[in-house]
Design brief:
It comes from Gordonia desulfuricans. It is a multi-pass membrane protein. This is Amino acid ABC transporter permease. With 293 residues, the protein is mainly alpha-helical. It has 2 domains: 5-53, no CATH class; 67-292, MetI-like (MetI-like fold). It is built from 11 helices and 6 strands. The strands form 3 sheets. The protein has a two-stranded antiparallel sheet with strand order 1-4. It has a two-stranded antiparallel ribbon with strand order 2-3. β2 and β3 form a beta hairpin. The longest helix has 32 residues, at 70-101.
Length: 293
């Protein structure tokens, strides 16, 4: 066993076959395999980091100069905005689709299944390009006014669906396909007895879901949803294909001028990692809070 110990009786007093247990010294068993593996792993990581830092082909001064560049920080802000909006809308859609997925209605359940299948299956970059060029397929959207000739609402799709809006929509739709299954798994984790007890007390289905089922399902839902938030942040880098103004778009634009692509990608990586660290810390405390309720 990993927690086994060796007992060494250095000065044990034996009197009439009696051993003084209090004088026994507990010596932990040394796991030489673990120690050697850890030393080798540390050596490999140190060698890789050292080789990367001292590489003469990387100009770290460029990384330092552009780490706090105004264009980079603006791209970072847009990345955070589209990630929060995209994931927030995705969570709302996921709850609705997840509830529909476990509905007894075959129509609702079938629609939810098709939604999940489609938006989990289509690549994000394809959906992003399609939504970004939606104005090529639908020029104008109008809502007729039944009491007059002028429409209630009329707008040009190409003017409304900007690269930022297209990015938020694509992230939300793609994320909803994955998160809906997370929500469904969380809802199914609550025992049937909870529903039966609520029904016996005269609580309707909506209140049962809101006040009984969802609070208990949050313990299952929150950890993978946190991972989806981090995944949404990283997926936002694909927005650069339609020049969405995000962090990746900003660093690639700068690299097109100074021709230091690797250094600018390092700048983007540093910011992505810093944001992910903050999100991971927030997820940790959120999971602890949900676990205590």
């Amino acid at each position: 066993m990993s927690n086994s110990v060796a007992l060494e009786p250095p000065d044990v007093t034996r009197a009439a076959g009696h051993v003084d247990v209090n004088s026994l010294q507990v010596v932990p068993v040394r796991h030489w395999g673990r120690m050697i593996s850890a030393a080798v792993l540390i050596a490999i990581v140190a060698f890789c980091v050292y080789g990367f830092v001292v590489n003469p082909n990387i100009e770290w001064s460029v990384v330092g100069d552009f780490l706090l560049d105004g264009g980079v920080l603006k791209g970072l802000l847009l990345t955070l905005e589209m990630t929060v909006l995209g994931v927030g809308i995705a969570v709302i859609l996921a709850v609705v689709i997840g509830v529909m997925r476990i509905s007894e209605s075959r129509i609702l359940s079938g629609f939810a299944s098709i939604w999940i299948f489609f938006f989990r299956g289509i690549p994000l970059v394809v959906l992003l390009i399609f939504v970004g060029n939606l104005g090529l397929f639908v020029n104008t959207v109008s809502i007729a006014n039944p009491f007059g000739t002028a429409p209630l609402v009329s707008f040009q799709v190409q003017q409304v669906v900007t690269p930022f809006v297209a990015s938020v929509i694509a992230l939300a739709l793609t994320g909803s396909g994955y998160m809906a299954e997370i929500v469904r798994a969380g809802l199914l984790s609550v025992g049937v007895g909870q529903h039966e007890a609520a029904k016996a007390l005269g609580v309707n289905g909506g209140k049962t879901l809101r006040y009984i089922v969802l609070p208990q399902a949050l313990r299952i839902i929150i950890p993978p949803l946190g991972n989806e938030l981090i995944g949404g942040l990283k997926a936002s880098a694909i927005v650069s294909v339609i020049a969405g103004g995000d962090l990746m778009t900003a660093v690639l634009g700068i690299s097109g001028v100074n021709f230091r692509t690797i250094e600018m990608l390092i700048v983007a990586t540093i910011w992505y990692l810093l944001v992910i660290i903050l999100l991971s810390i927030g997820q940790y405390f959120l999971e602890r809070r949900a676990a205590t309720k």
